[in-house]
């Protein structure tokens, strides 16, 4: 990954975006510290994509066989003073 100082990144933003698309993530530093990474949308989506779909997640849950009581109580509602 190439590193860019913030001021240089501001001045050459288009170039950095092109490099991120062609070569991969670009690191921007501020005061000598790594601050942000510029990367393509495709790379970002791979990072945030869930590794397991929701159905598989629940099927593999250790609580899968727990018997839950989902019946609704028939009690009357409480009075509210307005």
Show the helix and strand layout:
Elements: E1 2-5, H1 6-11, H2 13-22, E2 26-30, E3 33-38, H3 41-48, H4 54-59
Parallel strand pairs: 1-2
Antiparallel strand pairs: 2-3
Summary?
The chain is of the alpha+beta class. The protein is built from four helices and three strands; from the N terminus they run βααββαα.
Kindly give the count of domains.
1
Total strands: the figure is: 3
Approximate shape: elongated
- CATH fold label: YefM-like fold
Number of helices: 4
Plain-language structure description:
With about 80 residues, the protein is of the alpha+beta class. It has a single domain (about 1-60), classed as YefM-like fold. The chain is about 35% helix and about 20% strand. The chain has four helices and three strands. It has a three-stranded mixed sheet. Strand 2 and strand 3 form a beta hairpin. The termini are far apart.
């Amino acid at each position: 990954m190439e590193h860019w100082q913030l001021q240089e990144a501001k001045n050459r933003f288009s170039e950095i975006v092109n490099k991120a698309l062609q070569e991969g993530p670009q690191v921007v530093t501020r005061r000598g510290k790594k601050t942000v990474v510029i990367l393509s949308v495709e790379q970002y989506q791979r990072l945030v994509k869930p590794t397991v779909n929701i159905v598989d997640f629940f099927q593999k849950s250790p609580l899968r066989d727990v018997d839950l009581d989902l019946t609704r109580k028939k009690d009357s509602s409480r009075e509210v003073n307005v």
